[in-house]
Amino acid sequence: MKNSFTALFLFLFLSQSLFTKTNAQDDCFGLGSMVGGILSSGIHGGYGFQKFSAEGLNRYTKIYNKNIDEFGFATGFKFGINLFQVLVDEWVIGMRLSYHILKEEHSATGSVAGGIVRRDYDLTLKSFQTGFSFAYYASKHLDIKIADLTLTFNSADLETRVEQPFLPTEEEEFESVENPIGFSAGSGFTVYIIPPYLSIEGSIGYSFFSIDRMRGFPSIEIAWDTDFIDGGGLYAFAQLNIVIPFN
Question: Beta strands 170-176 and 40-51: pairing type?
């Protein structure tokens, strides 16, 4: 956790330094008023998917049913704040903070003496993200995003439920022990429906992250010590941006 806060602090410090330097250079060339006129902030929300590799989790679920579908494709929502967006020559530079919450669920059934056993597994992936984007300003209606670089702080929850004949339902909850830092890189586009106030953004890229250790909740017993989620994968999101110009 301490390493996560340190990385976040350094990232925000460098971000602010770059932003200040950019404004200072613009003022030196007499462009301060122009940049100030197109500087903006705003909010966003969207929906998408994240692929990942979950070797440890899939190994666990197949203990009870080898035919159960594997985990590795979560869907859900993101929402957050566009801290700033500024046009420098023909480049749009932006920084944002966002929170992602995605889910994947699988069930399996099996026969036992007296009836059917049903097992349900509900996985929730949560991620706080902060990063920079660099886009080419094609027109007032279109930006082409060249790079979207993001630091991610990840966690996971797992709920299991077992229903079997003549016995009470068994439920267990697990949570990640740490919030490991990951990284994602992508590209995309932004279409302005009502320039510059309302836009739709599409992005696609690849995330690098892992979550090794999981424990029972609220106990402290370690249930997984490695490879619960051992790798990230492709992601794609569509989102709506509401822009607030600074002047």
Answer: unpaired
Produce one character per residue of 199-213: b if its CB has 16 or more CB atoms within 10 Å, e if not.
bebbbbbebebbbbb
Q: Which residues pair with 81 in a beta bridge?
A: 43, 97
Task: Give the pLDDT confidence of 91-100 residue by residue, as tens digits.
Answer: 999 999 999 9
Counting every residue, how long is the chain? 247
Task: For the chain, report the end-to-end CA distance as a whole number of angstroms.
Answer: 39
pLDDT at 13: 45
Residue pLDDT, tens place only, 10-24: 444 444 444 444 444
Q: What is the per-residue pLDDT for 119?
A: 94
What CA–CA distance (Å, rounded) separates 135 from 143?
A: 6
**For residues 31 and 29, what is the distance between their CA atoms, to the nearest angstrom?**
6
Distance CA 85, CA 38 (A): 8
Among residues 177, 181, 174, the alpha carbon closest in space to that of 210 is found at 181
CA atoms within 13 A on the CB side of 73: 3
Structure token digits, residue 195: 């320039």
Low-confidence ranges of the chain (pLDDT < 50): 1-37
Q: What is the pLDDT of residue 247?
A: 62
pTM assigned to the model: 0.83
* Strand partners of residue 194: 198
Token output for 100? 């992602």
Angle at 159 between CA 153 and CA 165, to 5 degrees: 170
Q: Which amino acid, 190? A: T
User: What's 169's DSSP letter?
Assistant: P
Domains by residue range for the chain, with CATH: 2-245 (2.40.160.20)
